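Lecture 7 notes: from sequence to structure.
We start with the chain below.
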Amino acid sequence: MLTLYHAPNSRSSRILTLIEEMGITDQVAIRPVTICRFDGSGCADPANPHPEGKVPLLDHDGTLISETAAIILYLTALFPDSGMAPKPGDPRRGDYLTWLFWYGANMEPALIAARSGLSHPMFTATWREPAALAARIGTALRHSPWLLGDGYSAADLLIHSPYAWFPEATPEDPVIRDWVARCMDRPAVAAMKSRDAALIG
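Predicted structure tokens for the same chain:
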């Protein structure tokens, strides 16, 4: 059995969107939990087995998988025919894996540092800076509508997500802005927002 420990309107909403995109809503139970929020509200939920009280967390018959990119990789491998990821042997597989892990290793730390107003040469040497992130994404989108070419994938879902949450951080590049708009306009996003609203009640 697959169970997603989920807090509405949080990072785990991306996994809820992925589940919608993959067409596996009937195969993943959603377990709502509370989390500590940036604004100081909320609290860690004792029912959440995540060691840091965070979300998302996926429980597959007792095997726990945390970290968004790891869960994306796990689910797309578990359901390889979902169309959300290139299969092993596909030449796009390397780019797919690179985008997933680039997000956590570079993109999110750089955007958080910039949003918090922190600046240090070690940050830009390690994570680069938002302009460098935008240049890399923009380069990938110059000749195709999606990061991996002609088809939307879990890489697009993950990489566009901080711009969906914080529109003010979206680069001025119209290619990137149009791509973010296409990602946000997908039916799975509307379905996720509806499910989150129902959980908030």
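Points to note: Residues 93-116 form the longest helix (24 residues). The helical segments are 13-22, 68-78, 93-116, 121-126, 130-141, 154-165, 174-184, 187-200.
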